[in-house]
Known about the structure:
Layout: H1 4-9, H2 14-69
Amino acid sequence: MRCYRHRQDNSPCPRHDFIKDYARSLETLINVNHGWMRYVRVSVTWATRWANEAARDLISAAITSRSKSA
Length: 70
């Protein structure tokens, strides 16, 4: 990607090279963050599922112990 003036004499444009490198690094950062966020989302999903099952077990244990003592 070259600006008009640098396209005329076919010389590299430092500003547009910088913009291109910046865009590439930003894209890499977004991809890395997307993978990290997917990992966090899966971890949160599993943690929530595990907490729900543990709470259900605790509630059912409390109900059965109360019904046995009564």
